[in-house]
Amino acid sequence: MNRRQFLTGSICGAASVAVTASGASLLTSCAGAAEKKPATELRISFQEGIAPGANLGEKLDYMESMGIVGFEPWGGNLASRVGEIQQALSGRNIKVSAICAGFSGFILAEDESVKAQFDSTMRDIVAAAGELGSTGVIMVPAFNHQNPCKPHTLETRQYLCEQLHELGEYALKHNTTVILEPLNRREAHYLRQVADAAAICRDSKSAGVKCMGDFWHMQEETSDYAALMAAGKDYLQHVHIASRGRRIMPGEDGEVDNYVSGFRALKELEYPYYVSFECGTKGDRNQTVKAAVELMRAQWEQA
Ligand code: MG
Q1: CATH of 42-238, one of 3.20.20.150, 3.30.420.340, 3.90.950.10, 3.40.50.150
Q2: Coil vs helix vs strand at 278
Q3: pLDDT confidence of 34, banded at 50, 70, 90?
Q4: Rounded to the nearest whole angstrom, what is the distance from the C-alpha of residue 273 to the centroid of ligand 1?
């Protein structure tokens, strides 16, 4: 029992003892507490490679048996998979959470043909994501290895915001969004922190431009809580999770796999979207996935 449950129990307990003396007013206050809107749910999602299973149907069966409610497919050739995914999810309590990248080129490419590849493949994925009811399509502005890249200047930031504005408006027309993912400096020095991604969302001036946090990459942050709160209800659209030492299943790295302060932020934000597994495993997947889900649920309770 946490402190809040203890206090709620104590207040209601005291009320029931005192009810004969004080009448209906105490009953009303207890009924009020019972009617409080339900606590924010932890909605767990898996990328396609997480669940054991020989094919998508078996993986979704496994996910359903564990109460996993989100599925995050890779975006490559998504348009050709819309029917397959819709059929596989039909009649299940699992929805497409987000689409993970899958486009060619990149938005900050110096080479116009590489930028054009990004524009056309990303738009195809966004349209397919909309058909699948996805919360958005995850993108990174530029990985460190992507060259030639526009220089890290004020003009480039302005250009990024303008380009994202157009992309965000396109996504809105397809009832979805684009989701900026900050990465750690070894993978993408351009965009490392959730608050910076949120500021780019704001400056892009489109409700179709959102951001996310990835607990693995959030080694860049000084506080999980502050990072997620900085993105807040306006911009936070998705979350990735992995262990915090080796990017394997949450729990496989022992005590460092603590997500409580981040989860507390999600609860305070009444975060309505998904926390999605993006990680490998060093153990037997049948055991490590189950243990990771249990760990997350226990830490969510604790938060
Ligand atoms: Mg990620």
Answers
A1: 3.20.20.150
A2: coil
A3: low
A4: 15
Ligand 1 geometric centre to CA of 278 (Å): 6
pLDDT score of 11 more than 50: no
Centre of ligand 1 to C-alpha 241, Å, is: 7
CA 146 to chain centre: 25
What is the distance in A from the centroid of ligand 1 to the CA of 274? 13
The string of pLDDT tens digits covering residues 243-298 is 999 999 999 999 999 999 999 999 999 999 999 999 999 999 999 999 999 999 99
- The answer to whether the CB of 120 falls within 8 A of the CB of 153 is no
Give 153 Cα–ligand 1 centroid separation in angstroms.
Answer: 25
> Could you give the CA distance from residue 124 to residue 303 in angstroms, rounded to a whole number?
39
Q: Is the pLDDT of residue 4 over 70?
A: no
The pLDDT of residue 38 is: 82
Task: Kindly report, residue by residue over 204-239, the tens digit of the pLDDT.
Answer: 999 999 999 999 999 999 999 999 999 999 999 999
Report yes or no: 183 and 140 within 8 Å, Cβ to Cβ.
yes
Distance 138 CA to ligand 1 centre (A): 9
Domain boundaries in the chain? 42-238
How far apart are the CA of 181 and the centre of ligand 1, in A? Answer: 7
Q: How far is the CA of 155 from the centre of ligand 1 (A)?
A: 27
